[in-house]
């Protein structure tokens, strides 16, 4: 099927699958099914059956929760190369958040039933999965610490560095990162208000740390790292 080699390469870079051997990735790619959603379409809702995982190949997916007061809380935006629903792929439990296509979105769906058969036939993969789950727990602890203790500047800098890393841009002095979302969405993702986020962006722009050109933000990576990790942690 066209696109399967690219899918395998994408899966091989993700933390969940990077310890899989080439033949394991090929077997995983063989059970994937192409899917697409229009802008604004609901991909799944919280509480739905966890029937598989989505590898985003084009577009953007928002993961969110609806609070008791009716407010929608954005948890994450997943763009090309990222995956959505991997925990449901592993345990088959209900979806823990809503997933919405922010733009016309294409992806590959990996069904849980096929994945379970793959794992049953290759029990050695369980060690790689267990290591991934431990990493996820550490990441969650870091996120909680970030929201509770770090200033907004550090949270924003870490978010931008993560986007650069996803685009395989880490060793350059300056690079552009795409922030293809409203400021209100970005503010929600880093746990801040929109006015506070805008003040930081304006300050950074005046200092020359960033240059904004529509949705593209060119930034000085070294300066971002110093802001993101002020104690070198």
Q: What characteristics describe this protein?
A:
233 residues; alpha+beta; Jelly Rolls; Arc Repressor Mutant, subunit A; 4-stranded antiparallel beta sheet; 9 helices
Short account of what is shown:
The protein is an alpha+beta fold and 233 residues long.
Folded structure, characterized:
The protein is of the alpha+beta class. The chain folds into 2 domains: 136 residues, Jelly Rolls (Sandwich); 79 residues, Orthogonal Bundle (Arc Repressor Mutant, subunit A). Helices cover 45% and strands 24% of the residues. The chain contains 9 helices and 11 strands. The strands form 3 sheets. It has a 4-stranded antiparallel β-sheet with strand order 1-8-3-6. Helix 1 packs across helix 2 and helix 7 packs across helix 8. It is globular.
**In angstroms, what separates the terminal alpha carbons?**
44 Å
Number of helices: 9
Shape: globular
Instruction: List unreliable stretches of 5+ residues.
Output: none
What order do the strands of the largest sheet run in, or round the barrel if closed?
Answer: 1-8-3-6
Strand content: 15-25%
Helices and strands, in N-to-C order? HHEEEEEEHEEHHHEHHEEH
Itemize the secondary structure elements and their pairings.
Layout (H helix, E strand, L loop, with lengths): L3 H10 L8 H9 L2 E5 L4 E3 L7 E7 L2 E6 L5 E7 L4 E2 L1 H6 L6 E4 L3 E7 H10 L3 H25 L2 H15 L7 E5 L4 H7 L4 H14 L2 E4 L2 E5 H8 L5
Antiparallel strand pairs: 1-8, 2-7, 3-6, 3-8, 4-5, 4-7, 9-11, 10-11
Helix pairs in contact: 1-2, 6-9, 7-8
């Amino acid at each position: 099927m066209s696109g399967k080699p690219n899918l395998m390469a994408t899966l091989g870079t993700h933390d969940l699958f990077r310890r899989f051997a080439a033949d394991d990735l090929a077997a995983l790619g063989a059970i994937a099914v192409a899917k697409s959603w229009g802008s604004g379409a609901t991909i799944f809702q919280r509480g739905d059956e966890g029937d598989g995982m989505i590898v985003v190949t084009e577009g953007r997916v928002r993961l969110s929760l609806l609070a008791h007061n009716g407010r929608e809380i954005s948890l994450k935006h997943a763009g090309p190369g990222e995956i959505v629903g991997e925990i449901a792929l592993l345990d088959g439990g209900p979806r823990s958040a809503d997933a919405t296509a922010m733009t016309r979105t294409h992806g590959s769906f990996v069904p849980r039933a096929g994945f379970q058969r793959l794992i049953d036939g290759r029990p050695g993969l369980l060690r790689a999965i267990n290591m991934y789950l431990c990493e996820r727990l550490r990441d969650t602890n870091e996120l909680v610490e970030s929201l509770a203790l770090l200033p907004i500047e550090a949270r924003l800098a870490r978010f931008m560095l993560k986007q650069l890393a996803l685009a395989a841009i880490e060793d350059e002095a300056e690079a552009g990162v795409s922030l293809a979302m409203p400021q209100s969405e970005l503010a929600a993702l880093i746990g801040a208000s929109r006015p506070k986020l805008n003040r930081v962006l304006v300050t950074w722009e005046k200092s020359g740390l960033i240059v904004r050109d529509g949705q593209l933000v060119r930034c000085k990576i070294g300066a971002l790292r110093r802001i993101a990790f002020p104690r070198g942690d």
